[in-house]
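Researcher: Here's a chain I'd like modeled. Treat it as a single chain, no partners, no ligands.
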Amino acid sequence: MNLKNLTCATILLLMISLPGIAQQKNKFTTQPAVLAIIKKNLADADAQYKVLATKLKPGEFPKTYHPETDKQENSNSGWWCSGFYPGTLLDLYQETHDKALLTEADRILAVLAKEQYNTHTHDLGFMMYCSFGTANRLNPSAEYKQILLNSAKSLSTRFNPKIGAIKSWDAKPSDFVVIIDNMMNLELLFWATKVSGDSSYYKIAVTHANTTIKNHYRADHSSYHVINYNPETGAVQEKKTAQGFANESAWARGQVWGLYGFTVMYRETKDKKYLDQANNIAEFVLNNPNLPADKIPYWDFNAANIPNALRDASAASIMASALLELCKYTNKADGARYFNTAQSIIKTLSSPQYKAEAGTNGGFILKHSVGHFPAGTEIDVPLTYADYYFVEAMKRYKAFAIK
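Model: Modeled as a single isolated chain. Structure tokens:
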């Protein structure tokens, strides 16, 4: 598909027709026992997030909790994870109808709103679409729509047409750094085209995804974390894995960011190459000899001390949520495998090993995630995005039970 020849009207026509094309073609049977676990999890998560709310000063967002010292670590609105807290509050509110969660979500969204003009981060999808995008789905408003459109505009300023990608980290002028996580920010751009009629957002998202397939992925369909381009020529200068065990290793969260991101790409474009990419990533992960039987990945598939390496609940949550969408689009056999894997992950994360007891864990839902192991930060702690994608995965699983 040559995007240069697509008019705005053509793109919009394609996007309007997509939901009917990329619809669920596989049928899955939920387990009553798992639905009961999810019902309890959501009620427990409601209570936990009311505890978490008490740990914040007015301008703060939850970041993590250190169980060994009983210390809470919070951030300002500019931290890349700031959108997950309001997003989780709103998702839980939709499930439990606890207005205390809605009140807290409204409060913290007002603090976050200024980030719509932040042009110094690629994480505006995480920050703004997971938060205001969720708010707009629950209660559409002109204010939310404008904030999201402004966010998409800000994100688009980081796109370099010579490289064909959105810059992730600001670095020295001779570097143009793109990380695999950026695939998760493209959904905001697709939304912006559908709402505004401006096809430039769509084109940026597709171009970025194509560049990512070309340069981030190895022959075995594993992904580097970081690609450093020459901003003048667009040539690849360096390939590395900053948050993983080694440059050539498969950092677990990076693999599932790609899995989720290319599943979204297929949903929004119906281009089969993105479905193939998502399936290939799924096969790399699920067939990996270092994936534990309970499907909760080690923080890196090539960590030196497997089987004693730390697990990463955040990678498991993201994987479960992604698989519960991808299973709808792929063939019957793979779909069943993806669905059953996600179901298994939800059950494991719901066990006392990973799910925190009421009133503990700083108010977070899940324990045992890994942020940046090489830097020695956020190691074996709760993280907001682990909670966010766990709640999203449970909601997606529940949706299969609705006839």
